[in-house]
Write a structure and sequence with these properties.
The longest helix has 19 residues. This protein is about 25% helix and about 25% strand. The protein has nine helices and 19 strands. The C terminus is likely disordered. The chain has one domain: L-arginine/glycine Amidinotransferase, Chain A (5-stranded Propeller), CATH 3.75.10. Helix 2 links the parallel strand 3 and strand 4. The protein has about 375 residues and is of the alpha/beta class. It holds the Pfam family PAD_porph.
Length: about 375
């Protein structure tokens, strides 16, 4: 079999999320907890305008989830500790030789390098639970990795960062060749583009050590959206040229150079914890739309919407305030995981069917589209 991770722009069956539960990530006060619940719920409702949303909900949060989400989101009971679904949930893949088969990559998840503060052992089981729920074939991996640590173009190219997959707290014996081979086996990536690092805030105690999904993403094969920090007072102003240089010198799986479009950061440089990592790259592409991060900066938010509209023609861009998410360590892309739609596979006709006979009324031989 030959697994391939489709581009995020391909049609989705649904988006997966996990509902927050009380703990350090959510916050220590009632106000902080309420803010976190509201932020996750706002993203779920925004996505649900475009496609179905399935939410893993810890039994302790069932009543609250129902009150905040109503009937707009499918809720599935499952033990939850961390709730960054992109990272501990499955990475979905397809097999082009078996059009009706869905695969689910189960990376090893150790809480972004097994830091002492992380509660991750329950959520490390989510990939298997979700795979069973949707009847996907499980693709087990021995690599410690998170969904936020990869971005693909759907045609064989994957973006990685050296400080994530080669992190000794994750994979102490890995090298590029071993990671490249595992990317080929699990998600069908024939070409890995290695970026040297991620954004500055991501290397704090509670960071991921350089996830790529806050730095760069493919809007289409050969087209990369790249974070930009125009203010020299922010340390990422010096970081981004190094990252851009790696992309400028790269070629994708088709052998072409990359066109790069920059997404400038908003004007705010700091919050109570230090320099922010506010990034419009951390958006989610959905069926017919884009769920974009907003940062309370009308000028920058509007500029980002315009860039995203141009980069994803024909999609409606919806902005959701992402500051409560970033305050907790991530963004909209980090809390969501898309499940690709599979093509419709009609049963074979009987031997009595005449060649060229029309399909049964109501059936379609076209691929699922939204």
């Amino acid at each position: 079999m030959s697994w391939r991770m489709p581009a995020e722009t391909a049609p989705h069956e649904r988006t997966w999320m996990a509902f927050p539960r009380e703990g350090m990530t959510l916050g220590g006060t009632d106000a902080e907890r309420d803010e976190g619940y509201a932020a996750w719920s706002a993203v779920a409702r925004a996505v649900a305008e475009f496609e179905p949303v399935a939410m893993l909900v810890d039994p302790s949060e069932t009543v609250r989830a129902r009150s905040l989400l109503g009937d707009t989101v499918e809720q599935i009971a499952a033990p939850v500790d961390e709730f960054w679904m992109r990272d501990h949930g499955p990475t979905f893949v397809v097999d082009d030789e078996r059009p009706g088969v869905l695969g689910a990559v189960d990376w090893i998840f150790n809480g972004w390098g097994a830091p002492g503060w992380a509660d991750w052992r329950l959520s490390a089981e989510h990939a298997r639970a979700v795979a069973a729920h949707v009847d996907a074939e499980l693709v087990s991996s021995v690599l410690v990795n998170e969904g936020g640590g990869i971005h693909v173009d759907g045609t064989g190219t994957v973006l990685l960062t050296e400080t994530v997959q080669l992190d000794p707290r994750r994979n102490p014996f890995a090298d590029r060749a071993r990671v490249d081979a595992e990317m080929l086996r699990t998600i069908g990536a024939t070409t890995a583009i290695w970026l040297p690092r991620g954004l500055t805030r991501d290397y704090d105690e509670f960071g991921t050590n350089g996830h790529v999904d806050i730095v760069a993403t493919f809007a289409a094969p050969g087209l990369v959206l790249l974070h930009a920090q125009p203010d020299a007072a922010h340390p990422d102003h010096a970081v981004m040229p190094e990252i851009r240089a790696a992309l400028d010198g790269a070629t994708d799986a088709a052998g072409r150079g990359l066109e790069i479009i920059e997404l400038p950061a908003p004007a705010q440089l700091r919050d109570a914890e230090g320099f922010v990592d506010y990034s419009y790259v951390n958006h989610l592409v959905v069926n017919g739309g884009v769920i974009a991060c907003g940062f309370g900066d009308a000028t920058a938010d509007d500029r980002a919407r315009g860039i995203l509209r141009d980069a994803y023609p024909g999609r409606r861009v919806v902005t959701v305030d992402a500051r409560p998410l970033f305050a907790r360590g991530g963004g909209i892309h980090c809390i969501t995981q898309q499940q690709p739609a599979l093509p419709r596979v009609d049963p074979p006709r009987s031997a009595d069917d005449a060649p060229g006979a029309p399909a049964i009324a109501g059936e379609s031989t076209e691929q699922v589209q939204r």
